[in-house]
Each structure stands twice: as structure tokens, then as C-alpha cells.
Specification:
The chain is α+β, with helices and mostly antiparallel strands and 394 residues long. The protein has two domains: 186 residues, no CATH class; 197 residues, no CATH class. Helices cover 39% and strands 20% of the residues. The strands form four sheets. A six-stranded antiparallel beta sheet has the order 2-7-8-1-5-4. Strands 11-10-9-12-13-16 form a six-stranded mixed beta sheet. A two-stranded antiparallel ribbon has the order 3-6. A hairpin with a 4-residue loop joins β10 and β11. α4 runs antiparallel to α5 and α5 crosses α8. Bound molecules: zinc ion. Zinc ion binds next to loops.
């Protein structure tokens, strides 16, 4: 199983429609929660949560929904309230099992979400067999998605393969709306990669140098944001967020400063995470066989000079993402032995020479061939002898 999440590209009308559906779901959930609590005061009703919720659902569809003031509910898909009651059942069963706190009322503040699903079948529940294809919505590899019971919506990023799913969750974070759904990994067809094989040198100067000539860098905004952050920290170097030991209460300014600091760090992390995710996706789409160096990252972090740059570029993260995207994009990730002298070898004549870390250009002492250090290393990785190469497993 694979989960896919994409941001929806909504116009104002669609935005308010989504808001309306989310409000409907919230209403139903809270309605059910209130009624189940009220039903406990009648001691002569002796049934479990699940049956109680079924009875409440009947009241909802046969009485409440038919009242004229609730006429607006009819314009929304029925799967929305169905899934709200299912959520409520799950919430109660988790609470009974001691896995979660008592179900709380949904509030608008905590981000909205609702589910829709294709109905020509039974809603999937635990222990039931997988559903036949007829119950599924086919997503035909474009930048549009048809949500069951609703119309077609645009996506900000296309889904570039044909897949299908039954249940779709639509959620809101801040002012952005997302759709997520699960697909079977086996159903993703193998992709055609325009490039057969490349070597990738993960570097300090450049995030990744690829042997086909491309280069991925961290956006310069990180540098700017970092400078801003260190300035901020220097200016506030004496600020202390209170001290219980000394009985000092945190000042308002100190509190404001620490919130600002956390926000800045989050922003930097987001930029980093985003860049790496985009890079690994782009590589996996373009190239069939990706060869990377087996880096001794823990050894490099021990070397203090390299520590910041290494943790910055998250070598491990790049490798992890490339490896797990293998199944998704049909790529092959290969790890080149750590003792292979990729940066010390001439990519033309094979001459091996000592290279200082500060040498940014490789200049061969035998054949005079000159090339950027990282570029040279990436070509060497691409052409590494097979006995020094092993395939990466997730
Ligand atoms: Zn040479």
C-alpha cells in the first residue's frame, strides 16, 4: 500500500464548498457525540456504543435531515455523514480499549477534514477482503482528480501514473486543502526513464552533482535565513526564558523571542525537507539506475569541520528517500563501496592522486584533464566497477 497526498488547486467557490462539507462533517460528528452522551442518562437502554451510534444515525437520517432548517445537508454527498459516524464508532472503540482519550468535539480551529468514497459496495472495514475494482475511482495520471459524490478538482502537482482508490480524505492545513488516498504499490506501472544510469556525488558545496551534468543546490534562501537566525540569536544572547531555580519569571519579550526562534528553525527545516524531497523525486523520474557513494556519515560528523555541512545536506535522508522511491518509480539504487576513490581518480585516464578537501577542481597530474571535483567524482561513480557496487535495499 502506498499513500498519496496532493495539494488541491481550488478557486474561491471550491474553497467554500470544501469548507461547507468539512463543517457538515463536524456537525454530524458533534451531533452524534452529544446524543450518545445524552443516551447514557437513560439507564434502561442497555446496548453497546456501536448499536447506539447506529440508532443515532437512524434518527439523524430519518428525523433531523428531514427538517426544513437542515435542508442544506442534502447538497453534500451522503458518504460524508456516513464516514462521520464511522469515525465516531472508531473513536469510542479506541477509548474503550484504552488507546485514546474520550472523544472530543471537533472544532474549526484544529484543521478540517472529511472523507468521501465510492459507494457501489460496502465501506471497507477491518477483516473484510479487498474490494473489487468496480468500487474504485480510477485516477488517470493527470493533474485532475474526480472525487466520488463531488465534481472534478485540479491538483497542484500531477499524478503521473494510472491508479485507483476508493476512499479519499480531504483535509485542510492553515489555508491549504489536500487530498490523500491509498493505492496498491503493485498497480503502479513501470516508468520509462529517459536516462539509463548516472552517478550522484552528494556534496558539501552542491547538494548533489549528477554525472549527466545537472546539479541540485540548496536554495539561497536558506543561507539568508540562517544569517538572519544567527543575528537574531546574537542580539538576544542574554535573553533567558525564566529560571525556576532562581525564581525568575519569563518576560513577555523572552517568550516572544523563543516563539520567533522556533518558527525560524521550522522554516529552515521545511526548506531543507522540501528541497530534498523534490530532488529525489526528480532524479527517480529521470533516471533508471542511480549510483551513490556509501558515505561514512558518522565518521564525517566526528570531523568537526565537516559536521555542519554534512548534517545540513542530510546525506542519509537523500539516500533513504532514493531507496524507498525505488518501488514507486521503478528505479534501481546502487551503493558504491566506500573505499572506491571516486574523488581522487581521474575520470579519463584512471590516475589516482591525493586530493585535499579544499581542492575544488580536479587537475590530473598524468593527462592534465581538468574538471570540477564533484563532477569528476559523479562520473567515476557512474563508471564504478561492478564488483564494488551493491544494490540498496530498503
Ligand atoms: Zn587523467
Amino acid at each position: 500500500m502506498f499513500a498519496i497526498k496532493r495539494e488541491l488547486k481550488l478557486n474561491n467557490f471550491e474553497r467554500s464548498l470544501m469548507g461547507g462539507i468539512a463543517g457538515f462533517k463536524r456537525f454530524v460528528y458533534n451531533y452524534g457525540l452529544e446524543l450518545i452522551r445524552a443516551s447514557w442518562s437513560f439507564e434502561d437502554i442497555q446496548v453497546g456504543d456501536s448499536l447506539r451510534i447506529d440508532a443515532i444515525k437512524k434518527v439523524f437520517t430519518q428525523v433531523t435531515m428531514k427538517k426544513p432548517e437542515y435542508g442544506w445537508m442534502k447538497k453534500y454527498p451522503s458518504t460524508v455523514y456516513q464516514s462521520a459516524f464511522i469515525d465516531l464508532k472508531n473513536a469510542f472503540s479506541r477509548w474503550r480499549k484504552g488507546l485514546a482519550a474520550f472523544p472530543r468535539k471537533k472544532s474549526k480551529k484544529k484543521g478540517d477534514s472529511f472523507r468521501v468514497y465510492k459507494t457501489s459496495g460496502v465501506y471497507p472495514s477491518k477483516g473484510k477482503p479487498a474490494l473489487p475494482f468496480t468500487n474504485r475511482v480510477v485516477i488517470d495520471g493527470s493533474n485532475k482528480i474526480k472525487l466520488p459524490g463531488l465534481k472534478t478538482f485540479r491538483l497542484k502537482e500531477r499524478i503521473d501514473f494510472i491508479c485507483s482508490s476508493q476512499t479519499f480524505t480531504i483535509s485542510r492545513t492553515a489555508d491549504r486543502w489536500f487530498v490523500s488516498f491509498a493505492i496498491d504499490a503493485q498497480k503502479i506501472p513501470p516508468q520509462m526513464h529517459p536516462i539509463e544510469k548516472v552517478g550522484v556525488d552528494l556534496g558539501v558545496k552542491c547538494l548533489a552533482t549528477v554525472s549527466d551534468g545537472t546539479c541540485y543546490t540548496m536554495p539561497t534562501t536558506t543561507k539568508r535565513a540562517k544569517t538572519k537566525l544567527s543575528k537574531l540569536q546574537w542580539r538576544n544572547r542574554n535573553k533567558v526564558l525564566g529560571s525556576k531555580k532562581l525564581g525568575i519569571i519569563a518576560s513577555k519579550n523572552a517568550r516572544k523571542y523563543y516563539i520567533k526562534l522556533a518558527k525560524n528553525y521550522a522554516r529552515l527545516r521545511n526548506i531543507r525537507v522540501n528541497t530534498i524531497a523534490q530532488m529525489t523525486t526528480d532524479l527517480s523520474r529521470r533516471v533508471y539506475c542511480i549510483r551513490i557513494e556509501d558515505l561514512n556519515v558518522s565518521g564525517m560528523i566526528a570531523n568537526h569541520k565537516l559536521a555542519s555541512a554534512v548534517s545540513d545536506h542530510c546525506f542519509y535522508e537523500v539516500r533513504r528517500q532514493l531507496v524507498y522511491k525505488q518501488a514507486h518509480y521503478g528505479t534501481k539504487v546502487e551503493i558504491v563501496d566506500r573505499w572506491f576513490p571516486s574523488s581522487k581518480m581521474c575520470s579519463v585516464c584512471g590516475h589516482i592522486q591525493a586530493m585535499k578537501l579544499s581542492d575544488r577542481v580536479f587537475c590530473c597530474q598524468r593527462c592534465n584533464y581538468t574538471l570540477d571535483r564533484d563532477k569528476n567524482a559523479s562520473i567515476n561513480l557512474e563508471n564504478a566497477p561492478d564488483k564494488l557496487v551493491r544494490s540498496a535495499r530498503p
